[in-house]
Amino acid sequence: MSVFAIKQPSAWVPVAMSVAALVMTVSYVATVGVAAAHQPDEGTPAHVFQLLMAGQVPIVAYFAITRLSSDPRQALQVLALQIVAALAALAPVYWLGL
Fold first, then answer.
1. Which of 56, 50, 59 is nearest to 25 (CA)?
2. Among 61, 62, 54, 53, residue whose Cα is nearest residue 85
3. 3-state secondary structure string across 41-75
4. Which of 26, 86, 87, 94 is most deeply packed, by most CB within 10 A?
5. Which residues contact 43 (CB under 8 A, 6 or more apart)?
């Protein structure tokens, strides 16, 4: 993967947002526990998680639209990295049933 492709904000910002969501989820579960996370009211951490994950969609779409036509191989590598990062952030939520 070229360093140039990942230096663009539309390439690394979604990855950073996924990492932030993952760190927030793990730290929240580590501090309050899984049982306390199952509340009727989702709370602020859940809303921030949702904003971080949904906010990536337009950024990833912009990256795909602007980079796929000019350099498809590098763009697909960055898109794969973005998808893996998003799945890593979603995994604890799925596994723990949050």
1. 50
2. 53
3. CCHHHHHHHHHHHHHHHHHHHHHHHHHCCCCHHHH
4. 86
5. none
In this predicted model, what pLDDT tens digit does every residue of 9-48 receive, in sequence order? 999 999 999 999 999 999 988 888 776 666 677 788 889 9
- Cα(91)–Cα(52) distance, integer angstroms: 15
Looking at the whole model, is its pTM more than 0.90?
no
Are 6 and 63 in contact, with CB atoms under 8 Å apart? no
Longest dimension (CA), the chain: 48
Cβ pair 4, 70 in contact under 8 A:
no
